[in-house]
Amino acid sequence: MNQQPIPANPVRRILTASLIGTTIEFFDFYIYATAAVLVFPKLFFPGSDPTTATLQSLATFALAFFARPLGAALFGHFGDRKGRKATLVAALMTMGPSTVAIGLLPGYASIGIAAPILLALFRFGQGLGLGGEWGGAVLLATENAPANKKAWYGMFPQLGAPIGFLISSGSFLILSKTMSENDFISYGWRIPFIASAILVWVGLYVRLKITETPEFMKIIDNKQRSKIPIADVFVKHTKAITLGTLATITTFLLFYLMTVFTLSYGTTVLHYPKSSFLIIQMISMLFFGLGIPLSSLLADKYGRSQMLIVATICIMAFGLVFAPLFTTGSPLTTAIFLSLGMFLMGLTYGPIGTTLAGIFPASVRYTGASLAFTLAGILGASLTPYLATTLAHNYGLASVGYYLTAASAITLLALLGARTMISRQTE
User: Fold this and answer.
1) Would the pLDDT of 4 be above 60?
2) Predicted pLDDT at 300
3) Burial 39-52 (b: 16+ CB within 10 A, else e)
4) pLDDT tens across 108-140, in order?
5) Where are the domains of the chain?
6) Hey, how many other C-beta atoms are within 10 angstroms of the C-beta on 10?
7) CA–CA separation, 65 vs 61, rounded Å?
8) Tens of pLDDT, residues 209-233
9) Which residue has the higher pLDDT, 9 or 117?
10) Which distant-in-sequence residues (6+ apart) come within 8 Å of 64 by Cβ?
């Protein structure tokens, strides 16, 4: 029987499409995280004391993480049924308008209680879009990759995280340097949200140029598409979704401790100027970006499970020195602390996408990988800034480090339990 040849995507186009999409998505996500600390407590939650307003703002930040599994299930269904390409475009078009809408939203002083309600609604839209974006971007890369370079290809969408953060923080840094505090609170913070529309159009242009992945075309040819992917994930692949979720918790927790929590704590408790702290965070992102390709190269050479286990043990140890490194008030020590934490973040983040994609069969891979990643976001990130702020306020900064170490222990056990499953992948 003659089979239609599977169209090949040029390598550069594949990797660009996977990278640029996640860069845009994470840029949108991070500008919210930054504004949730620096602007939203004053603009959308006035009348509360500073700590309460910050906690209320961080609660809306957490909302997106509960929307992400819904996005994973929704977009994952269509990604496994209709294809990776169209679903990736739809995910981008869900998050982009939500971000622009936040930039146009009047504050509490103008429309009262409707302001925080609409903020929460648009934040939910951001989470819904990102829930469908990440898994599709990883699959676009890994399903086009040679067998011996799966982790290397799979790290390109992961690079969107540090790049998106650098663009986000750089935008806020420039704005804070070029306008007064009043102007920044009044309208300056809105500029990155509204400008994201330009980035979305760039992302759409690139993604509309790609063709479907070879592995999905094989599913269609062999008539192997799942009728209800989410049901198959939880019924037929219960071990994979459970261990995959638990193995990813620390990845999320570490990142949001080192970004959102440290920004809040550093500017309110240690009294760093926000511009100074943003510069230190941007320096640490370079180490994050360095850790991602390094860990991916090592994962392809020595195995993904081994790489993730070593990275997790290092993070457990890092949690024990969290407080001593961060409480000195020295910019140099703080820079070392953040850079070390973000380098460890790169070591665990680089191979995690390829690992999650590989533990599910291609017929439910979009749904399975996306759900494991986003469910881990709920457990490891949604309430992390809120809980860490509460722990630091009530029990001291050392308790935040112990929180990280305890989560790492759970991840380590999950990785050990999943070693056989991961080893079945082509490493």
Assistant:
1) no
2) 92
3) bbbbbbbeeeeeee
4) 888 888 888 898 899 898 888 888 888 888 898
5) 11-423
6) 12
7) 8
8) 778 888 888 888 888 888 899 999 9
9) 117
10) 29, 32, 123, 124, 126, 127, 130, 382
What sign has the CA pseudo-torsion 410, 155, 254, 319?
positive
The letter for the amino acid at 187 is Y
Enter the pTM of the model.
Answer: 0.84
The three-state DSSP-derived secondary structure of the chain is CCCCCCCCCCHHHHHHHHHHHHHHHHHHHHHHHHHHHHCHHHHCCCCCCHHHHHHHHHHHHHHHHHHHHHHHHHHHHHHHHCCHHHHHHHHHHHHHHHHHHHHHCCCHHHHCCHHHHHHHHHHHHHHHHHHHHHHHHHHHHHCCCCHHHHHHHHHHHHHHHHHHHHHHHHHHHHHHHHCCHHHHHHHHCHHHHHHHHHHHHHHHHHHCCCCCCHHHHHHHHCCCCCCCHHHHHHHHCHHHHHHHHHHHHHHHHHHHHHHHHHHHHHHHCCCCCHHHHHHHHHHHHHHHHHHHHHHHHHHHHHCHHHHHHHHHHHHHHHHHCHHHHHCCCCHHHHHHHHHHHHHHHHHHHHHHHHHHHHCCCHHHHHHHHHHHHHHHHHHHHHCHHHHHHHHHHHHCCHHHHHHHHHHHHHHHHHHHHCHHHHHCCCC
In the predicted structure, residue 354 carries a pLDDT above the cut 60 = yes
Domain 11-423: which CATH class? mainly alpha
CA geometry: angle 91, 145, 133, nearest 5 deg: 10
Can you tell me the distance from the alpha carbon of 80 to that of 96, in angstroms, rounded to the nearest whole number? 23
Q: Which of 199, 222, 253, 234 is nearest to 72 (CA)?
A: 234
pLDDT at residue 315, rounded to an integer:
97
Alpha carbons 169 and 152: distance in angstroms, whole number: 27
| Residue 70 tokens, joined | 């819904």
Q: Which two tokens stand for residue 245?
A: 């979720």
Contacts of 251 (CB under 8 A, 6+ apart): 345, 348, 349, 352, 376, 380, 411
Cα–Cα distance list, 111 to 105, 115, 182, 186, 191 (Å): 9, 6, 19, 15, 20
The pLDDT tens digits of the residues spanning 38-55 come to 788 888 887 666 777 777
**Residue position matching structure tokens 């638990």:** 246
Question: Cβ atoms within 10 A of the Cβ of 278, count?
Answer: 24
Q: Which of 345, 333, 233 is nearest to 290 (CA)?
A: 345
Q: Is the dihedral of CA 395, 401, 407, 413 positive or negative?
A: negative
